[in-house]
Amino acid sequence: MRTARLQLAGRVLKYGVLGVFAVAAIGPVLFALYTSFELPADYPRFVSFSRLTLSNYRYVFDNAPVLRWYANTAFVTFGVVLGAVVVNTMAGYALARIRYPGRALSFLIVLAILMVPLQAILIPLYLLVAQLGWLNSYQALIIPFIANPFLIFLMRQSFQNVPTDLEDAAAIDGAGRFRTFLKVAVPLTMSGIATQAILAGTWTWNSFMIPVTFTTDPNHYMMTVGLNSLQSQFYTLVTVQMAGVVLLTVPIVLMFVAFQRLIVPSFATAGIRG
User: Looking at the domain assignment, is residue 28 inside a domain?
Assistant: First the structure.
């Protein structure tokens, strides 16, 4: 009886702590969502649901090219995700399976780059992009960010967890290295591939520092930069700003809700084998 009570108390404590963290995490999102439906004159008071309106969203769409910004963000995100899945998956497989001189050094370089913050390379990267004539272009927002050291590390760990016996069997059947990679290794690491696609998509969709540095033409703005320009134009209308925040956040939240079951197993197994 005492053991059962202790187990019940432990579960209550665990879920209570998790509930507190959940409320702390979702609270700002709920506040932004509620504020986005308020009239500017009602902010920051709480009012009845009968006074909530869609006028802030209409204001945003009437005074800014939001659909254009959405299209830019979706295009850049798709380009980065597609390139990342191809490049990082192949790089991770090479580090995990192909034995070549300097493989350990290559892995150490990937880990070293992982520790370098973006701010440290932003100016050299800007100068390179400017010399290539890529400012205010989609390739400036896509190509430099396809290869990602963290995603390479993630895929290396995913391939490390695939039994080598399966690939040896494929080699005995006459499959070459690339065919083994496509037919055996990739299908067994779909969780890791899906995880890196979701992470790359989330980082790109929410990115602000890169697009605000490389684009000055409103026609090439991504949502984050466009919403920042809304803040400078309509700084007194907090409710309008919150409507823009909701428009930026909803796609990412829906994506995480839909694919969260793929993310957890990949991170859970990422550090099992070195």
Answer: no
Q: Which two tokens stand for residue 244?
A: 């823009």
Residue 6 amino acid letter: L
14 within some domain: no
Q: Which residues contact 256 (CB under 8 A, 6 or more apart)?
A: 198, 202, 263
Domain count, the chain: 1
pLDDT single digits (tens) 221-244 = 999 898 887 765 555 678 888 888
Reading the block at residue 183, the tokens are 């037919």
- Residues of the chain where predicted confidence (pLDDT) is lower than 50: 268-274
| pLDDT for position 63 | 82
CA 155, CA 86: separation in Å to the nearest integer? 11
Residue 215 is part of a domain; what is its CATH number? Answer: 1.10.3720.10
**Torsion angles phi and psi, residue 272, rounded to 5:** -70, -45
* Residue 177 located in a structural domain: yes
Segments forming the whole domain that contains residue 247:
37-269
Q: Which pair of structure tokens corresponds to residue 99?
A: 């034995």
C-alpha–C-alpha distance, residues 164 and 18, integer Å: 39
Phi then psi for 37, rounded to 5 degrees? -100, -5
Sequence letter at residue 72: N
State the Cα–Cα distance between residues 42 and 50, nearest whole angstrom: 12
Q: What is the model's pLDDT at position 232?
A: 58
Q: What is the pLDDT of residue 7?
A: 74
User: What is the pLDDT, as a whole number, of residue 274?
Assistant: 44
